[in-house]
Amino acid sequence: MAKVLILSGFAGSGKGTICAIARQKEPRLRLSVSMTTRAPRPGEVNGREYTFVTPEEFRKTVEEDGFLEYAEYSKNCYGTPKKQFFDMMEQGFIPVLEIETRGAEQAMGKMDDCLSVFLSPPSFTVLEKRLRDRGTETEEAVRRRLSEAKEELRRIPRYQYLLVNRDGKAEEAADAILDLLHTGKTDSPALVKDVQAFIDGFLNA
Ligand code: 5GP
Fold it and tell me: Which of 99, 127, 134, 152 most suits a substitution to test ligand 1, by most atoms within 8 Å of the C-beta?
């Protein structure tokens, strides 16, 4: 069984919801709380969704080699604190890194025993709709995230698995992740078999 779960997906892919369902069903999964320089959104609590820090505090942690991985995304910095990560592993938990693709690549390069999954909505149109419906971002931020998504699309083949989160099917995707974690396979309809064809069709679907 994998010792770490790396879960990436476009902003608006539903990874937060899917991850919460998976964690409820598999209590050994523990969400790693990242550090970020992004401002908290309404309802976010420091230390729960993220540890919110200033750019200076973030830079200091980089200098102290305190991150397992870190990256800049949409003009903000995000990183996985090393200590928390290794503490979780030592306690027998399976850390879940809910992170973007550049950081995920760094993390994959440092660990053998990880399960890496990319989550996507069915199409770019659905992604755009979900981001706008979420209503937490300004128009400019939505546009920035959509352009990040196009960049991230190219890095999907680095992941072991690509799952599609179809509308109303979050549980299906969560179950697919748990299958992969427990048995290394899944016959879930959420699993994309032809990754390249999905990527090629994504922007036009
Ligand atoms: P958001 O601002 O929407 O919470 O997150 C933006 C992106 O940053 C998401 O793709 C999220 O998964 C990613 N992210 C969150 N924490 C980390 C982290 O510690 N490292 C990296 N590389 N990405 C992160």
Answer: 99
